Amino acid sequence: MVENLHPNLAPMYEEVLERNPGEKEYHQAVYEVIHSLNPIAGQRSEYMQWSILRRMCEPERQIIFRVPWTDDEGNVRINRGYRVEVNSALGPFKGGLRFHPSVNLSIVKFLGFEQVYKNALTGMPIGGGKGGSNFDPKGRSDAEVMRFCQSFMTELYRHIGEYTDVPAGDIGVGSREIGYLFGQYKRITNRYESGTITGKGLTWGGSRVRTEATGYGTVYFVKEMLADAGDDLDGKRVVVSGSGNVAIYAIEKAAQLGATVVACSDSNGFVVDEQGLDVELLREVKEKRRERLTAYAEARGGSVRHVTDGSIWSVPCDVALPCATQNELDGQAARTLIDNGVRVVAEGANMPCTPEAVHLFQESHVLFAPGKASNAGGVATSALEMQQNASRDTWSFEATDTRLEEIMTGIHRRVVETAEEYGQPGDYVAGANLASYMKVADAMVALGVV
Ligand code: NDP
Prior knowledge:
By secondary structure, the protein is of the alpha/beta class. The chain folds into three domains: about 1-55, no CATH class; about 60-190, Leucine Dehydrogenase, chain A, domain 1 (Rossmann fold); about 215-375, Rossmann fold (3-Layer(aba) Sandwich).
């Protein structure tokens, strides 16, 4: 891998490997960005000065803490909490919290690193960070989730704030968890600081469209990719992995724009619904009843298949939207999608495609959008939530949705133009990484060595 990097960049990547041993997801995310910098590594040396890249690869602050809580049987449980504040050159650290048993320092660092560049692409004044815990909310009662969130915030509160670091949701952290976290923050600080956390409920400082934003935004991005190719979503067959927040609203928006979404998944398997997924039923099963996709298949009956062995990416489609988790779409899955004629792949999740899969898509001229561009609608709408909180205002659904679509169109244009400018037309990965890197680097140069 190192041999594919410009001689000015290779030693920096080697240093990252050495300073962060064993953190494979973090290495993967850093490599992707560094690799995209090849075109400027020689010519545009101001972006390499003052160890800008070295500083970008060393988070500003990494916090790891114990989270003790009591389960419903009275047993004391211990989890590990994280907040990694990666870069605040453009604004306060901003990024979600993930509660999932797989969470570790490498995953939080990769997510925080990606977040810096994603946030820069939105054009909003926000830096990047990420956090979470290896706590698994699945199967836990509301009371247990509340006690966990309260304990988590009892440490986290001292590190966050409207002008410091603004967390939000991610896998396993939805409006229920955000409510308990914000409630404890308010209690400890004795301040109703709405702008300290985003993803809030509509009656207590949340923004309309925040729930829908990541999924809708991903589909708005796909709409732009297809429009550039003289096409649209009408009549397309779409497959979406996951069935959480991002997946559900990607499915809803794709269907609204005339596509038929035929499959989605959870960690136990996937459903194939040739008539097109019933989003209302999906929301009822996943959001309200917190049940598995088997319940969706049972409720829908007859024509729906629930598959527990095999990959959702074996379902033929024109557009594939991986919206579950990192590295869920590998080289083999990419080959199957390509053989089945996929035309567009856009990441709703963070880094769901392995480097091999990305390479295969690009080599086969499949339009491929990296998550830091295509799923940026969520954090962009979080920034809109912060704007509404700061001005003590609330915007209508239509106004906020229009703003989201404009932001996604703007990101698409910036990415496409940057890729062209640096001689890599059609390469969304290079366009996204170069545009965002230069934006963050410009600010870091201006702010000096801090
Ligand atoms: P949710 O918790 O709402 O849903 C996650 C979905 O992915 C679930 O269907 C879950 O299945 C599945 N999933 C999670 N982990 C695994 C795994 N290890 N293997 C298989 N399936 C898995 O999370 P979100 O929808 O919020 O997040 C999905 C992705 O989108 C993540 O990568 C996140 O970082 C990214 N993202 C989210 C944003 C947001 O606004 N929410 C913003 C930008 C990116 P199961 O229920 O079985 O666990």
